[in-house]
TrEMBL record:
Pfam families: Thioredoxin_7. Residues 1-20 form the signal peptide. One of its GO terms (cellular component) is endoplasmic reticulum. CDD domains: AGR. This is Anterior gradient 2. It comes from Cyprinus carpio. The keyword Transport does not apply. Belongs to the AGR family. It comes from the Eukaryota. It is found in: Endoplasmic reticulum; Secreted.
Length: 198
Protein backbone atom coordinates (compact mmCIF):
# COMPACT_ATOMS: atom_id res chain seq x y z
CA UNK A 1 0.00 0.00 0.00
CA UNK A 2 2.89 2.32 0.79
CA UNK A 3 4.36 1.67 -2.68
CA UNK A 4 1.04 2.60 -4.29
CA UNK A 5 0.80 5.89 -2.35
CA UNK A 6 4.40 6.77 -3.20
CA UNK A 7 3.77 6.00 -6.89
CA UNK A 8 0.66 8.22 -6.96
CA UNK A 9 2.53 10.96 -5.12
CA UNK A 10 5.41 10.76 -7.59
CA UNK A 11 3.00 11.03 -10.53
CA UNK A 12 1.23 14.04 -8.95
CA UNK A 13 4.55 15.83 -8.28
CA UNK A 14 5.67 15.23 -11.85
CA UNK A 15 2.38 16.53 -13.27
CA UNK A 16 2.31 19.59 -11.02
CA UNK A 17 5.89 20.52 -11.92
CA UNK A 18 5.13 20.18 -15.62
CA UNK A 19 1.95 22.25 -15.35
CA UNK A 20 3.47 24.92 -13.11
CA UNK A 21 6.41 25.77 -15.41
CA UNK A 22 5.84 28.61 -17.82
CA UNK A 23 5.97 27.61 -21.43
CA UNK A 24 9.25 28.14 -23.14
CA UNK A 25 8.76 30.55 -25.94
CA UNK A 26 11.36 30.51 -28.62
CA UNK A 27 12.05 33.98 -29.86
CA UNK A 28 10.95 34.44 -33.43
CA UNK A 29 13.89 34.71 -35.70
CA UNK A 30 13.65 37.27 -38.41
CA UNK A 31 13.37 35.83 -41.83
CA UNK A 32 16.83 36.16 -43.27
CA UNK A 33 17.24 37.03 -46.90
CA UNK A 34 19.66 34.66 -48.59
CA UNK A 35 23.07 36.12 -49.33
CA UNK A 36 23.75 36.70 -53.02
CA UNK A 37 27.16 36.56 -54.61
CA UNK A 38 27.18 40.36 -54.78
CA UNK A 39 27.29 40.64 -50.98
CA UNK A 40 25.89 44.16 -51.44
CA UNK A 41 28.41 45.36 -54.06
CA UNK A 42 25.79 45.47 -56.82
CA UNK A 43 22.90 43.03 -56.81
CA UNK A 44 22.09 43.57 -60.49
CA UNK A 45 25.62 42.57 -61.58
CA UNK A 46 26.68 39.07 -62.55
CA UNK A 47 29.30 37.91 -60.06
CA UNK A 48 31.63 34.95 -60.37
CA UNK A 49 31.42 32.51 -57.50
CA UNK A 50 35.08 31.47 -57.26
CA UNK A 51 38.44 32.76 -58.43
CA UNK A 52 38.81 29.80 -60.78
CA UNK A 53 35.39 30.44 -62.32
CA UNK A 54 36.23 34.13 -62.72
CA UNK A 55 39.49 33.29 -64.50
CA UNK A 56 37.60 30.98 -66.85
CA UNK A 57 35.00 33.67 -67.64
CA UNK A 58 37.71 36.27 -68.11
CA UNK A 59 39.57 34.12 -70.60
CA UNK A 60 36.50 32.89 -72.48
CA UNK A 61 34.82 36.33 -72.69
CA UNK A 62 38.13 38.15 -73.27
CA UNK A 63 37.33 40.60 -70.47
CA UNK A 64 39.55 41.70 -67.60
CA UNK A 65 38.77 40.41 -64.12
CA UNK A 66 38.28 42.76 -61.19
CA UNK A 67 38.83 41.06 -57.82
CA UNK A 68 37.56 42.85 -54.71
CA UNK A 69 38.83 41.60 -51.35
CA UNK A 70 36.77 42.72 -48.35
CA UNK A 71 35.37 41.68 -44.98
CA UNK A 72 31.74 41.96 -43.92
CA UNK A 73 32.58 43.46 -40.52
CA UNK A 74 35.28 45.89 -41.71
CA UNK A 75 34.10 49.54 -41.63
CA UNK A 76 36.43 50.50 -44.51
CA UNK A 77 35.08 47.65 -46.63
CA UNK A 78 31.52 48.67 -45.77
CA UNK A 79 32.03 52.30 -46.82
CA UNK A 80 33.75 51.31 -50.07
CA UNK A 81 30.99 48.80 -50.78
CA UNK A 82 28.34 51.48 -50.30
CA UNK A 83 30.12 53.93 -52.60
CA UNK A 84 30.74 51.23 -55.23
CA UNK A 85 27.13 50.01 -55.17
CA UNK A 86 25.68 53.52 -55.41
CA UNK A 87 27.92 54.70 -58.27
CA UNK A 88 25.92 54.10 -61.45
CA UNK A 89 28.88 54.72 -63.76
CA UNK A 90 31.07 52.17 -62.03
CA UNK A 91 28.21 49.68 -61.88
CA UNK A 92 27.61 50.05 -65.62
CA UNK A 93 31.29 49.73 -66.49
CA UNK A 94 31.66 46.70 -64.23
CA UNK A 95 28.59 45.09 -65.80
CA UNK A 96 29.54 45.78 -69.42
CA UNK A 97 33.30 45.40 -69.50
CA UNK A 98 34.51 43.24 -66.59
CA UNK A 99 34.23 39.85 -65.04
CA UNK A 100 33.82 40.65 -61.35
CA UNK A 101 34.46 38.73 -58.18
CA UNK A 102 34.32 39.77 -54.55
CA UNK A 103 35.96 37.63 -51.93
CA UNK A 104 35.74 37.60 -48.15
CA UNK A 105 38.62 35.13 -47.95
CA UNK A 106 42.11 34.94 -49.40
CA UNK A 107 42.84 32.83 -52.45
CA UNK A 108 45.73 30.45 -52.87
CA UNK A 109 47.13 32.63 -55.68
CA UNK A 110 49.96 34.60 -54.05
CA UNK A 111 49.95 37.02 -56.98
CA UNK A 112 46.70 38.46 -55.63
CA UNK A 113 48.46 39.76 -52.52
CA UNK A 114 51.63 41.34 -53.92
CA UNK A 115 51.98 43.78 -51.01
CA UNK A 116 50.18 41.84 -48.28
CA UNK A 117 46.75 40.66 -47.28
CA UNK A 118 44.61 43.60 -46.23
CA UNK A 119 41.08 44.77 -46.98
CA UNK A 120 39.58 46.37 -48.84
CA UNK A 121 41.77 45.94 -51.91
CA UNK A 122 41.02 45.67 -55.61
CA UNK A 123 43.23 43.94 -58.14
CA UNK A 124 42.86 43.46 -61.87
CA UNK A 125 43.68 40.33 -63.87
CA UNK A 126 43.84 40.42 -67.66
CA UNK A 127 42.36 37.65 -69.85
CA UNK A 128 45.80 36.05 -70.25
CA UNK A 129 45.52 35.38 -66.48
CA UNK A 130 48.22 37.91 -65.58
CA UNK A 131 47.65 39.82 -62.36
CA UNK A 132 48.17 43.47 -63.24
CA UNK A 133 50.26 44.59 -60.27
CA UNK A 134 51.01 47.80 -62.17
CA UNK A 135 47.44 49.08 -61.70
CA UNK A 136 47.60 50.57 -58.24
CA UNK A 137 45.72 53.02 -56.07
CA UNK A 138 47.12 56.19 -54.53
CA UNK A 139 48.53 54.82 -51.29
CA UNK A 140 52.19 53.86 -51.03
CA UNK A 141 51.73 51.57 -48.03
CA UNK A 142 48.66 49.75 -49.43
CA UNK A 143 49.03 49.80 -53.19
CA UNK A 144 45.66 48.26 -54.01
CA UNK A 145 43.54 49.96 -51.36
CA UNK A 146 40.74 52.34 -52.26
CA UNK A 147 38.43 54.63 -50.34
CA UNK A 148 35.00 55.96 -51.28
CA UNK A 149 36.53 59.39 -51.92
CA UNK A 150 38.67 57.92 -54.70
CA UNK A 151 35.59 57.49 -56.86
CA UNK A 152 34.49 61.07 -56.23
CA UNK A 153 37.93 62.50 -57.10
CA UNK A 154 37.76 61.04 -60.54
CA UNK A 155 34.40 62.58 -61.31
CA UNK A 156 35.21 65.98 -59.82
CA UNK A 157 38.24 66.35 -62.11
CA UNK A 158 36.37 65.45 -65.32
CA UNK A 159 37.79 61.98 -65.58
CA UNK A 160 37.72 60.42 -69.02
CA UNK A 161 34.42 58.94 -69.91
CA UNK A 162 34.75 55.15 -70.00
CA UNK A 163 33.51 54.98 -73.58
CA UNK A 164 35.96 57.67 -74.77
CA UNK A 165 38.78 56.00 -72.92
CA UNK A 166 38.10 52.68 -74.58
CA UNK A 167 37.82 54.19 -78.06
CA UNK A 168 40.43 56.97 -78.11
CA UNK A 169 43.12 56.54 -75.47
CA UNK A 170 45.98 54.29 -76.47
CA UNK A 171 48.60 55.39 -73.96
CA UNK A 172 48.42 56.99 -70.55
CA UNK A 173 49.16 60.69 -70.67
CA UNK A 174 50.56 62.77 -67.85
CA UNK A 175 47.13 64.19 -67.10
CA UNK A 176 45.69 60.70 -66.66
CA UNK A 177 48.37 59.51 -64.23
CA UNK A 178 46.67 61.38 -61.37
CA UNK A 179 43.41 59.61 -62.09
CA UNK A 180 45.01 56.18 -61.85
CA UNK A 181 44.43 56.43 -58.09
CA UNK A 182 40.71 56.01 -58.50
CA UNK A 183 38.69 52.88 -58.94
CA UNK A 184 36.95 54.08 -62.06
CA UNK A 185 40.13 55.10 -63.82
CA UNK A 186 41.82 51.82 -62.90
CA UNK A 187 38.89 49.96 -64.37
CA UNK A 188 39.31 52.01 -67.52
CA UNK A 189 43.06 51.47 -67.47
CA UNK A 190 42.61 47.71 -67.22
CA UNK A 191 40.33 47.84 -70.25
CA UNK A 192 42.84 49.95 -72.16
CA UNK A 193 45.60 47.46 -71.44
CA UNK A 194 43.38 44.71 -72.75
CA UNK A 195 42.76 46.58 -76.00
CA UNK A 196 46.41 47.54 -76.62
CA UNK A 197 48.28 44.47 -75.39
CA UNK A 198 46.17 41.55 -76.54
Amino acid sequence: MLKGILSVLLVLVTLSSAIGKPEKTTPKKEKRIPQTLSRGWGDQLIWAQTYEEALFWSRSKNKPLMVIFHLEDCPHSQSLKKAFAEDKEIQKLADDEFVILNLVYETTDKHLSPDGQYVPRILFVDPSMTVRADITGRYSNRLYAYEPADMKLCKSESCFNAKNTLLHVTRLTASLVWFVSTVLSNMQRALKFLKTEL
